[in-house]
């Protein structure tokens, strides 16, 4: 199967899995469940699920097992977007082409949607029999918890909020992004691999690949933001805080950021090279991520 076809089939599969695993809209409390579904369904590239499927297929994990893992990852990701969009953080009114949850519902609901999606993720991941090996399942739960918490995504977000209007070094920016965006992307690769059978050397290799691709994702995101801003002559209205945030482009410049993206993609490919054809999908996802802005 060609990559675009594979990607579309995983995206469809994940949409269906999320649809089934999210509490029904008719189930009380209806407003909260409707808002959880509103936030999660019908949008997004599903990059983290794609990475989990790619690594999981490589490790021989069944698609049914990967469905649950993909849902756990996407639930954490959506929770982070819903909270990130709130007035106390980035104060965004649009996400995935529709009004953000606090705009469509209200702030308290948005807070609860994030909370409930986060715990739903761990409920999914701890389903009995989801992993061949109970030790690997516990490892996956711990990995996702760490990647989401203060030593991962939430920690990166805290640094991000603290850096508004300040000048930070390239090293500090990298530290922030490895945590804020990179940790969950890295966890996606690792969780997929843990759902199948993978030796420790390969897991270590995938861990390094995850680190490269997590950072790559953010560098590309910064480039895309810059290119979009330039095209629309600046997103001035209502985005002051986000505009003052340091990015790869603001710290090292657009051309060096593009060079960095290429270098990170090369490092990701180099890390996967010894895995041969088994890592084909991971290589294709790397190219998909890096090719977006160029
Ligand atoms: C609130 C704890 C907490 C964390 C928020 C990830 C994050 C941390 C905030 C998102 C803000 C943001 C726009 C970050 C830049 C990179 C990024 C994660 C973009 C959104 O992810 P995509 O492109 O989105 O995968 P889709 O909609 O495709 O799922």
TrEMBL record:
Instruction: Tell me its EC number(s), please.
Output: 2.5.1.10
Q: Which UniProt keywords apply?
A: Isoprene biosynthesis, Magnesium, Metal-binding, Transferase
What InterPro entries is this protein classified in? Isoprenoid_synthase_dom_sf, Polyprenyl_synt, Polyprenyl_synt_CS, Prenyl_diphosphate_synthase
- Please name the GO terms that the record assigns under molecular function: (2E,6E)-farnesyl diphosphate synthase activity
For activity, the cofactor(s) needed are: Mg(2+)
Mind telling me which CDD domains this protein's record contains? Trans_IPPS_HT
A Pfam family the protein falls into: polyprenyl_synt
- Give the enzyme class: transferase
Q: Where is the signal peptide?
A: none
Keyword DNA-binding included in the entry's annotation: no
Homology family: Belongs to the FPP/GGPP synthase family.
Would you tell me the protein name for this molecule?
Farnesyl diphosphate synthase
Organism field: Uliginosibacterium silvisoli
């Amino acid at each position: 199967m060609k990559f675009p076809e594979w990607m579309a089939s995983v995206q469809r599969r994940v949409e269906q899995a999320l649809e089934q695993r999210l509490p029904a809209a008719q189930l009380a409390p209806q407003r909260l469940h409707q808002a959880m579904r509103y936030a999660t369904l019908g949008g997004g590239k599903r990059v983290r699920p794609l990475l989990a499927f790619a690594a999981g297929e490589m490790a021989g994990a069944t698609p049914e097992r990967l469905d649950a893992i993909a849902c756990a990852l996407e639930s954490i990701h959506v929770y982070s977007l819903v909270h990130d969009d709130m007035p106390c953080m980035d104060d965004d009114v649009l996400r995935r082409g529709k009004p953000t949850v606090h705009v469509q519902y209200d702030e308290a609901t948005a807070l609860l949607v994030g909370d409930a999606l986060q715990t739903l993720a761990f409920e999914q991941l701890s389903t009995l029999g989801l992993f061949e090996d109970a030790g690997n399942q516990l490892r996956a739960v711990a990995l996702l918890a760490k990647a989401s918490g203060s030593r991962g995504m939430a920690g990166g977000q805290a640094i991000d909020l603290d850096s508004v209007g300040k000048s930070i070094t390239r090293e500090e920016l990298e530290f922030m992004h490895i945590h804020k965006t990179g940790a969950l992307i890295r966890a996606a690769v690792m969780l997929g691999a843990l759902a199948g059978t993978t030796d420790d050397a390969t897991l270590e290799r995938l861990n390094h690949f995850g680190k490269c691709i997590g950072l790559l994702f953010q560098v590309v995101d910064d480039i895309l933001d810059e290119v979009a801003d330039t095209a629309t002559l600046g997103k001035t209205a209502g985005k002051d805080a986000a505009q003052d945030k340091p990015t790869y482009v603001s710290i090292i410049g657009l051309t060096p950021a593009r060079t960095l993206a290429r270098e990170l993609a090369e490092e990701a490919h180099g890390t996967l090279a010894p895995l041969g054809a088994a890592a084909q999908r991971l290589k294709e996802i790397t190219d998909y991520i890096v090719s977006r802005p160029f």
